[in-house]
Each structure stands twice: as structure tokens, then as C-alpha cells.
Amino acid sequence: GGAELLRAASRAVDQAKREGRNRSVAYHPGLDPRAAERLALVQELHRALEEGQFELEYQLKFNIERAPTGMEALVRWRHPTRGLLGPGEFMEACEESGLVVPLGSRVLDEAARRWRELDAHGLGHLRIAVNASALQVREALVEEVAAVIDRHGLPPGALELELTESVLLANPESATGIMKALCGLGASIAIDDFGTGYSSLAYLQHLPLQRLKLDQSFVRGLDSGADGQAICHAIIGMAQALGLGTTAEGVETRDQHEWLRARGCQEFQGYLLARPMSFEEILAHLA
Ligand code: C2E
Ligand code: MG
Ligand code: MG
């Protein structure tokens, strides 16, 4: 039952903590000229977290009928002088410094709070998805998700976690325990950027997953002909065989959208359908 799952997950978390303890990154400014810059960025990120400079944009996902099914929360940094920055500018530094853990907690809480607001607008059928990086999955994510679900009263299926294959492969045993516990709490799990890692099918089969997100590089590859199409076709077919849903990421053209729809892909996300936007814009868009 649920208690059993929680115990297994907490053992997995403890083990992950023991293994992660000695992994902090050391900086040697004298040795690497870029390290001083990185250190300054990390200090700036600490301040940004304290001062609430991070915010979330949301990108809608749509089903085959073009009805919205949910949205993905994407973090941005409202930098005091450089404007609104995307994760490409700071996520690596957040991961190396461990800041991604407290940042991830904020993201999770904020996204759950927004789901409440969606529900209040009669949009409670939409899922809200949050990205979690490997470091977060090693930490006490299960207790945190349990607390957030409780705090905001989220029903089963409302919250989705997007994990990359690297999360699963870094420590398969503890990742499996954590995923089982998360599912037990009513969160669903999608594998992000699917196809770019090296997870084996045999392994995927035994994980509590709901969805594979077809990486945008494969969607882009559809334009270049038969080989690119074969990969997408194979991934969609495999997902179907395993009873998993598929979400295509980075759908930018009508041709890509049509091709994927015709091959049984179930969900679509990309600039063609909706760009990431503020929560207020999302509400206006859905009204
Ligand atoms: P991701 O989870 O794979 O998110 C999809 C990325 O593709 C987002 O970039 C989104 O803005 C972008 N995108 C969406 N549609 C299209 C399209 O049609 N064409 C193209 N070219 N791009 C599209 P973004 O917002 O820059 O995020 C990049 C990555 O940063 C995310 O990739 C995710 O791995 C990470 N990330 C974002 N937010 C968080 C967060 O809160 N926590 C963690 N740990 N990682 C995050
Ligand atoms: Mg994602
Ligand atoms: Mg992705």
C-alpha cells in the first residue's frame, strides 16, 4: 500500500543522499578563467532566489482535436539588468551549485498554486507539469510532492513531473523507488526529451510512467525525410506497445503536426500551437 511505497522511497532517498554527499563542485578560480565568472553567476543566482526574481511561464499542450490538455511550467529569471532570461542562461549553474533544489521547490509550489487557480476558473481538467532535474530526484522529492499536493489540495492526475532519461539512468534503483512513490501520491510521470538518452526498453517497461515526450530534435528531423520519420514512427509505436502516451515537443509546422497526428501521437506542444506565456496570458488564451 501507500505506506509501503513511502518507506521504500524514503530508503531510496537516504541512499541517494549518501551517494550524493561528496559530489559538490569545487571551484579553482586560479586554474580556470571561466570559473570566476561562474562563481559570480552562482552568487547572483543565490540573490535572485532570495529576492524572488524567478518566475514561471506556461506552455499549453493539446490533444489530437486541438483541445488543451495541460501546460508545462518553464522557469525564467527576471534579471535586474539583462531582462527575462531562459533556463539556457542559468540552469547549468543552478544544477552545478545545487541551487536547483531550492529553486525546484519554489517552482513546484508555484505551479501547484496555479493549478488551484485554474480549477477556480473551471479549468481543473488541465494537468500542470513541472520539470525536475536529476539532483532534485535524489533529494527528498517525495515528501515535498506529498506536502505540495496536500497544501494545495491537488487531485490525482493534476500534477505531472517531467524527468529526463539521465535521471533514471544515474541511479536506476533509487529512481524507480521514487517514481513509484510519486505515482502513489497521484502525480503522473513523463519522460522528457525522450530518445536522447540511452534507457533500454526492458527498463522502461517496469517503470510507473504515463508518457514519453518525443524530443524536439526528432520532431525537427521529420523535415529531413525518411530517416527522421522512421525514428518518430518507431518511438510512437513503441510507446503505444508499452501502453504509454506520447507528447511531441517543439512542433513548429503544420506538416510536422499533421504527420504526427496521422501516426497516432496523442499530444502536441510547440510554437505552432502556443508559445510559453505568463499565467495571466494563459487564462486570457483559454477564456
Ligand atoms: P524542456 O522541458 O524540454 O522544455 C521545452 C523547451 O522547448 C522550452 O525551452 C520551450 O520554451 C521550448 N519550446 C517549446 N516549443 C518549442 C518550439 O516549437 N520550438 C522550439 N525551438 N522550442 C520550443 P526553455 O523554456 O528554454 O527550457 C529549456 C529547458 O530548461 C527545459 O526543456 C527544461 O529541461 C529546463 N527547465 C525549464 N524550467 C525548468 C524548471 O523549472 N526546473 C528544471 N529543473 N528545469 C527546467
Ligand atoms: Mg519539460
Ligand atoms: Mg524537452
Describe it for me?
This protein is an alpha/beta fold and 287 residues long. Strands 1-2-4-5-6-7-8-9 form an eight-stranded mixed beta barrel, surrounded by four helices. Helix 4 runs parallel beside helix 6. The chain is globular. About 2% of the residues have low confidence. The protein binds ligand C2E and magnesium ion (2 copies). Ligand C2E binds next to strand 2, helix 4 and strand 6.
In short:
With 287 residues, the protein is an alpha/beta fold. Helix content is 50%, strand content 18%. It has 13 helices and nine strands.
Beta strand count: 9
Which cofactor or ligand species appear? Answer: ligand C2E, magnesium ion
Quaternary organization: single chain
Largest sheet: 8 strands, mixed, barrel
List the helices and strands and how they pair.
Layout: H1 2-20, H2 33-50, E1 54-63, E2 68-79, E3 83-85, H3 91-97, H4 100-120, E4 127-131, H5 134-138, H6 141-152, E5 159-164, H7 165-170, H8 172-184, E6 188-194, H9 201-204, E7 211-214, H10 216-221, H11 226-241, E8 245-248, H12 254-262, E9 267-268, H13 279-286
Parallel strand pairs: 2-4, 4-5, 5-6, 6-7, 7-8, 8-9
Antiparallel strand pairs: 1-2, 1-9, 2-3
Helix pairs in contact: 1-8, 4-6
Defining key terms:
287 residues; alpha/beta; eight-stranded mixed barrel; 13 helices; globular; binds ligand C2E; binds magnesium ion
